[in-house]
Specification:
single chain, alpha/beta, Quinone Oxidoreductase, Chain A, domain 1, Rossmann fold, 2 domains, seven-stranded mixed β-sheet, globular
Length: 324
């Protein structure tokens, strides 16, 4: 089968096409015939060095049809339409543990379904217990809000009845996000948004903050945090991995700071997250309250162009690749 690998060369992630055998399912696994997959910054910006060594078959999420099931798999059969986090979505066939597979709502396109798994599951873990615990009426701040995970956070927050604030260096991106429910937009690429956040929240600050930018805005995020506020550390597109922490502020205000990453999750943790997501968020996707925001769709042969588009940071929402 045709597949695309992420290879680390000269401290850069490079895509390489390879012909490899169609995978066979082990016990508890499903092999999916991939119809669409999606791009994730962590795979290609951080690179395979962090996520699996000097090379790996790319693609962490996909939508498609069940091609084969392994021993012990129940609830899914050949031909079922599914989506989920996978191993090797940049290929004509991909493997996923059965506990990561979700039935695909009939009204979703392959491209919409492929845009869900990584970004929405990450957003879910950031906003729901035991971490973010976002409640109706609370304020959510997302820095770098136009990313896939950022958009998913806004959509889930609106479903919960929370208020949303987002930062971005692009006024055009923020305008697009206003159309899907972003309440307050702050056009900036600098760590200068605390005063605005305090103003719109009546001086209390944001109850939950999702920092998708990195260390350059970490201290400013702390300045925005309400008493008993929760701060999620998720991405570092700015390349700044270290930041100062005002321990007295964290101590006095009972702040909670936590990280969310898929890279070291255990199988049980992954399964638990999917079960919670299916219970708490999938009903809103199934009935149309949440519609995944697809920025652009590329053909499978255009994967390098999709990588370039992602590296340009021009997208709002998810970049999707149609496989077949």
């Amino acid at each position: 089968m045709k597949s695309c690998w992420i290879v680390t060369k000269g401290h850069k992630a490079v895509l390489e096409w390879r012909d490899v055998p169609v995978p066979q399912p082990k016990a508890g696994e499903i092999v999916m015939r991939v119809h669409a997959t999606a791009m994730n910054r962590g795979e290609l910006f951080v690179g395979g060095v962090v996520h699996g060594g000097p090379e790996k078959l790319g693609g962490n999420e996909a939508a498609g049809e069940v091609h084969a099931v392994g021993e012990g798999v129940t609830g899914f059969r050949v031909g079922d339409r599914i989506f989920g986090r996978v191993r090797g979505g940049f290929a004509e066939y991909a493997v996923l543990p059965a506990h990561q597979a979700l039935p695909m709502p009939a009204h979703l396109t392959w491209e919409q379904a492929a845009a869900i798994p990584v970004s929405f599951l990450t957003a879910y873990e950031m906003l729901y217990p035991p971490y973010g615990k976002l409640k109706p009426g609370e304020w959510l701040l997302v820095t770098g809000v136009s990313s896939g995970a950022g958009v998913a956070c806004v959509q889930i927050a609106k479903m919960l009845g929370a208020h949303t604030i987002g930062t971005s260096g692009s006024a055009e991106k923020l305008a697009k996000l206003k159309a899907i429910g972003l309440d307050v937009s702050i056009a900036t690429r600098r760590a200068d948004f605390a005063a605005k956040v305090k103003e719109v929240t009546g001086g209390t600050g944001a109850d939950v903050i999702v920092n998708l930018v990195g260390g350059s805005v970490f201290a400013e995020c702390l300045n925005c945090l309400a008493r008993r506020g929760r701060l999620a550390v998720v991405g570092y597109v700015d390349g700044v991995l270290k930041a100062e922490i005002d321990l007295s502020a964290v101590h006095a205000n009972r702040h909670e700071i936590f990280g969310i990453s898929n890279s070291k999750m255990t199988a049980d943790e992954r399964a638990q997250a999917v079960r919670g997501f299916a219970r708490d968020v999938m009903p809103a996707i199934a009935d149309g309250r949440i519609v995944p925001l697809v920025d652009r769709v590329f053909e499978f042969d255009e994967l390098p162009a999709a990588q370039q588009w992602m590296e340009s940071s021009a997208m709002v929402g998810k970049i999707v690749v149609r496989v077949k």
